[in-house]
Write a structure and sequence with these properties.
By secondary structure, the chain is mainly α. It contains two helices and no strands. Helix 1 packs antiparallel against helix 2. It is elongated and about 50 Å long. It starts with a helix and ends with a helix.
């Protein structure tokens, strides 16, 4: 597996985590109390995962670009 392929995998995982966040967002208006707190915690985890995947993908894509300088 090349670094570009690995970057694409991380981008796919980013999109998956983002889709899960989009799916959970409407529940913020419905839930309350303990369920709302758990939902927010779950959404924060997905958000952190999405950010890490996007960051890792960008690092992998830049790996060969930085060698030329």
């Amino acid at each position: 597996m090349t670094l570009d392929e690995l970057a694409r995998e991380y981008e796919a995982q980013f999109l998956l985590a983002q889709a899960k966040l989009d799916g959970l967002a409407p529940l913020l208006c419905i839930y309350s109390g303990k369920r709302l707190k758990e939902l927010r915690r779950k959404m924060l985890i997905y958000y952190d995962m999405a950010c890490e995947c996007r960051y890792t993908a960008s690092l992998l894509r830049q790996y060969y670009e930085d060698d030329g300088e």
